[in-house]
Amino acid sequence: MRLSVIIVNYNVTPLLRNCLVSLRKYLRETDYETIVVDNASTDPSWKKLVPEFPEVRFIPSETNDGFAKGNNKAISTAKGEYLLLLNPDTELEGFYMKEILDFADARNNFGCLGVRMHDAEGRFLPESKRSVPDMFNSFEKLFTNFKKNNSKSYYRCDIDEQVVAEVDIVTGAFLLVKREVYQEVGGLDESYFMYGEDIDLCYTLLKKGFKNFYYGKASILHHKGESTVKDEVYLERFYGAMHIFINKYYRTAKPVQYSFLKAGLNLRHQIEKIKLK
Fold first, then answer.
1. What is the DSSP secondary structure assignment for residue 169, as one 8-state letter?
2. Which of 224, 222, 2, 220 is nearest to 94 (CA)?
3. Of all helices (H) and strands (E), which one includes residue 61?
4. What is the pTM of this model?
5. 74 within 8 A of 50, measured Cβ to Cβ
6. What are the E-state strand segments in 106-235?
7. Residue 155 near residue 149, CB atoms below 8 Å
């Protein structure tokens, strides 16, 4: 089998349905399977999709164990040569999968690949192509908006949206990786509940000598954050994920950067908590 599409669902049944419809439409010429893990949604309406999409393997989880564990659970049953980690609030937009898989096949040390993402209003989502977080680009992202549109920073604004290029980080909303490579590097780190695990995986691939790619010739619609309530729980998970990352990669290897990043994250977290009140 060529491809396993892996989706973790939580309370977004209408969006998940649209996602599955797009797979059925645009992957007709690909030998693929789709595996959906439902992370203990409080809305049980996803079960109505089971008879509508008999080709999809649905795996219910009794508990919400987070994005990383949900993906790893599905991947443990996957059979595809390649894995496509795909958010349920996304939709494919073209017959480009064969082209992408052929591109991956032709690359030595292929790590992972992401595509151009836009929201429902057509706005490009800059997280489609990113750099590894460091002291300088993280400070810019956390505290300033003074970056040039063509600059290389946390967001790779120096790379045109429509091109194909090597990058450090792509997003877990659409992340293509060989199954054997995913298993070789240990998959998504289950220390993360949500957020940050895609950055960690991409960085791990780079450290292992693999190359990651942004494929701007293909696009997806991403209804970003439709299932996310921006409350204190969200803030704890988001900033907690960033702390996991810097503890893992900077605390010992780059202690000065670690101290600055830790202080910056703590300050930004407190600012965002005040905004909620």
1. B
2. 220
3. none
4. 0.88
5. no
6. 110-118, 164-167, 174-178, 211-222
7. no
Which residues neighbour 210 within 8 Å (Cβ) at sequence distance 6 or greater?
A: 109, 110, 111, 112, 181
Q: Are strands 211-222 and 164-167 parallel, antiparallel or unpaired?
A: antiparallel
As a whole number of angstroms, the distance between CA 163 and CA 217 comes to 6
Give kind and range of the element (H or E) at residue 261.
helix 255-276
* Lookup: tokens for 212: 């990651």
CATH code at 3-226: 3.90.550.10
Question: Model confidence at 271, in pLDDT bands (50, 70, 90)?
Answer: confident
Q: How many residues does the chain have?
A: 277
β 56-60/211-222 pair status? unpaired
Task: Look up tokens 């089971």; give the residue.
Answer: 50
Retrieve residue 160's tokens. 């045109």
Pairing outcome for strands 90-92 and 56-60: unpaired
Name the β-bridge partners of 173. Answer: none
Helix, strand, coil abundance in the chain, percent, nearest 5: 40, 25, 40
Q: Which range (81-90, 110-119, 128-137) has the least confidence?
A: 128-137
pLDDT tens-digit readout, 49-107: 999 999 999 999 999 999 999 999 999 999 999 999 999 999 999 999 999 999 999 99
Q: Which residue has the tokens 């079960």?
A: 47
CA pair distance 157, 154, nearest whole angstrom: 9
Q: d(Cα 256, Cα 254) in Å, to the nearest integer?
A: 6
Q: Any residues with CB less than 8 A from the CB of 1 and at least 6 apart, and which?
A: 31, 32, 33, 79, 80, 81
Give the dihedral of Cα atoms 43, 45, 49, 50; nearest 10 deg. 80
Question: Is the pLDDT score of 146 beyond 50?
Answer: no
Distance CA 264, CA 165 (A): 30
